[in-house]
Fold this protein.
Amino acid sequence: MRKYERERIQKIRRSVLT
């Protein structure tokens, strides 16, 4: 499982929403 990857994707997704 990639715990750190999920957090990274969440940060990137926030950037895309902006």
